[in-house]
Structures are given as structure tokens and as C-alpha cells.
Amino acid sequence: MPSWLPRAFVLFGATVLMFVAGLWLLERLRSLLLLLLTSLFLAFAIEPAVNWLAARGWRRGLATGLMFVVIGICAGAFFGVLGSLLLSQTTTLISGFPGYVDQVIDWINGTFGTHLSRSNVLTRLPTITDELSKHVSDLAGNVWGIGATAAGVLFQGLGVLLFTFYLSAQGPQFRRAVCSLLPPRRQRQVLWAWEIAIDKTGGYIYSRALLAVFSAVAHFAVLWMLDVPYALTLALWVGVVSQFIPTVGTYLAGAVPVLIALASSPITALWVLLFILAYQQFENYLLQPRITARTLDMHPAVAFGMVIGGTAVIGPIGALLALPVGASLQAFLSAYIRRYTVEDHPLTAVTAPRRHSRTHLALHRRHRDSGRQDRQPQTPPDDATNDGPDSRTNDRTEDGTRGGAGVGTNDGTGDATGNATSDGTGDGTGDGTGENGAPSA
Fold first, then answer.
1. Is 95 helix (H, G, I), strand (E, B) or coil?
2. Share above pLDDT 90 across residues of the chain, in percent, rounded to a whole number
3. Which residues contact 160 (CB under 8 A, 6 or more apart)?
């Protein structure tokens, strides 16, 4: 047995053991790592505002606390307004439940030809009530588990707030501690990456918040003029959900006002739907490119794919962090990936068909003609006379001499620019004629 073989076995076993231990430790610390990742990106989001306040004399801890208060007030107002809407709608549903039952029974009798009545339906309610009571009892028996889950969520929320506060308030000290472990060249790279992450994350949050304000104000004005119930609540719902839930948030946000307006009047619902569609076009083509041009330059399909991937990897937190992480990675890679000029081709033309159709066709024809010329053999002309554009170039005569920039003829005539004739002679001063190519005096 070779002397190195036992050492190789030991090294292989130790490597496998360390790998398994690392996976076990990663699984155990998964919640802590997610908490730290969430806190880091929340610190990135509020750090531009904290830096702006710190540059004007504020202490970083006080500036971070102020941002927490502002975010808490906004979140409390949003969920409070939504809670009031949900409570009022639930109360209305309960009070109008008998009328809704009568309407449903009348619709079923008229559609399917049945003979249901409220008394027949109410006789079956005890069975349904017993089932509901059973589920409620099971839920009440699991109250300890529900309480433990709620306590865990509260603890994690407080942990996120604590880590976010320290990462933002003591951001410079934390970065100095990290950079002290790296050589100068690596320090510059880490600080550059850190700056990009702050710029992209903070810019994304602030631009989305600004778009949400514009959307909420516009929708509130229209819903109030159309006399739609709960106009302020619905406007806040549309503004926040449409901006902070990528792609599908637009449809989720617009469906609720349309449904509530439909309960009042179909015409009102139609007007609300038309305004939502018109505002989305205005936002997508005019407002959003101006606001998010420097914050998140990402295709909507790529953004939607990032959200789905983030949700599949780390759950709902991944859906929130997918776009800032994607924007930061896009900025990192753009500094190292080299891009080239794209060749003109009909398949790469991105011009609008209606306005630039002639340009597109001309490009296609030029590409087609150039392909034909490449396939055809290049043969010299039969005679030296050429009145086309190539006659202005220097041509070689039959005996090997090179003429000027004009046209040579077979009878010896020459132009004023000094072209060679078929026998190699030519004039250089003016038009000359002569027999057998002799220039005139």
C-alpha cells in the first residue's frame, strides 16, 4: 500500500464530514441568515435618506430612528385604512346576508327550474353549522401553536428592526471593520459593490414610493368624482399594490376598485376600468421611464422571473428582495461583461413598423442585394467605358498603367482629369481627341 493512500482516505473523509456539517449548520441557521439578509437590504433602502440627514448635521442613530418612525406611520396608516374597509365590508355582508340568500335562491330557481325556498335552505344550515363549529373547536384547541407562531413572527420582526438599525446607524464602522480584513485593491472593489447595492436598492424603493403616491392621488381623484365608495382606501390599495408587487400587482390592484364599483353601477365600473387601463399606459410610457431610468433598468419579464425565482428559493422574503438583488447583480455584471455593436439585420431591427417601414424594407433589400453580390463572381467590364459611380475611381488600363479619376475611351479621347485610353495614353490638361489615342496639342 502506498504511504500516501491512508492520508488521502483521511483527507477525503474529513472533507465529506465538513461538507455534511456545513449543510447541517446552514439548515439550522437558515432563519438567521434570512433575517440578516432582510435586514441588510432594508438598511440599504434607508441608508440614502440617513446619509442625507447625516450630511446636514444629524446623528446617524437619530436619523435612522426618524426613518423607522416615518415607515411605521406609513405602514400603520395603510393597514389601518385597509382594516377599516375590511371591517365595514364584513359588517355590510353580515347585515345583508338574508337579502343575498334570497337573491341567490331566486337566481337558482330561475336558471335551473328548481323550487328552493329559504326554509329549505335553513333546514340544512344546522349540518353546516355543526361542521363549522367542529373546525372552530379544532382551531381553538391549537391555540397554543398559533400563539407560539405569532410570538416567533414578532420576535423575528424585532430582530429585523434591531439588525437594520445597527447596520444603518453604524454603517461606516461596519464597512471599516470589513475592509480592514482585505488588501487595498479588494477594499475598493467591496466598497464599489456596496455603493451599487445601496444606490440600486434605495433608488428602487424611493422611485416606487413616488410612483405609488402619483398613482394613489390620481385614482383617488377619479374614484371620488365617480362617487365610488371608499375612494381613499381603494386609491391607497391601488398605489401600493401596483408598485410593490411586480407585474401581477397591477391586475390585483385594479380588480378591487372595479368590483366595488360594479356593486354600485356597471357604467361606473366600466369608467373605472377604462381609467385604470389609461393610467397604466401613461405610467408605463411616460411617468415610469423618467423616474426609474437610473434605478431599475430591467425588463418586466426578467423582473417577474426574478420574483418567481426568489419566492421558490426563500419564500415570501425572496419575492420582496428579488428585484433589488437582481438590479444589484445587473449593475455588477455590467462592469465585467463586454458588449459589442450589433450588425444591421432585419431580425435585429427594433423600429416601429408604421413609422419606419420604408427604412426597414430598404435595410432588408440592401442586405439581400449584398448577399447576392457576395454569391456572384466579380468579372471586369468588357470595355473601358464606364459612366457609373465606379468611373470616378482610379482604374487600371489594359497594358497595366493606372489612369486618373475619369473615363477612358477606345478611340483615344480623354477627359480633363487625366484618364488613360485603351492603348495606355491619356491627356492631363483638357479634353483631347486624336486618332489611335494621340492627344491633341
1. helix
2. 19
3. 35, 38, 39, 42
What was the pLDDT predicted at 205? 83
Residue 150 main-chain phi, psi, to 5 deg: -65, -40
All cell numbers assigned to 128: 353546516
Per the rule left: phi > 0, alpha: psi between -120 and 50, beta: everything else, 77 is: alpha
Contacts of 61 (CB under 8 A, 6+ apart): 165, 169
What does 249-293 look like in DSSP terms, one character per residue? Answer: HHHHHHHHHHHHHHHH-HHHHHHHHHHHHHHHHHIIIIIHHHHST
Angle at CA of residue 215, ends 214 and 216, nearest 5°: 95
pLDDT tens digit sequence for 23-62: 999 888 888 888 888 898 889 889 989 999 999 999 999 9
Place of cell 399594490: 241
Q: How confident is the model at residue 295 (pLDDT cuts 50, 70, 90)?
A: low
Confidence of residue 165 (pLDDT cuts 50, 70, 90): very high
Q: Which residues contact 71 (CB under 8 A, 6 or more apart)?
A: 46
- The helix, strand and coil proportions of the chain, stated in percent and rounded to the nearest 5, come to 75, 0, 25
What are 206's strand-pairing partners? none
Which three three-digit cell numbers place residue 34? Answer: 434570512
Place of cell 353549522: 129
Side-chain half-sphere of 122: how many Cα atoms within 13 Å? 7
Name the DSSP letter for residue 390.
Answer: G
User: CA 29 from chain center: how many Å?
Assistant: 31
* Residue 260 contacts residue 229 (beta carbons within 8 Å): yes
Q: Using 50, 70 and 90 to split pLDDT, how confident is the model at 433?
A: very low
pLDDT at 14: 92
Structure confidence at residue 436 as a pLDDT band (50, 70, 90): very low
Rounded-to-integer distance, Cα 399 and Cα 384, Å: 12
Specify the DSSP class assigned to residue 392: G
Q: Residues in the chain, how many?
A: 441
Residues in contact with 105: Cβ distance below 8 Å, sequence separation at least 6, in sequence order? 116, 117, 118, 121
Percent of the chain with pLDDT over 70: 70
- 351 in Cβ contact with 319 (< 8 Å): no
pTM metric for this prediction? 0.61
Give the pLDDT mean for 346-367. Answer: 60
Query: What gap in Å lies between CA 422 and CA 336, rounded to an integer?
Result: 59
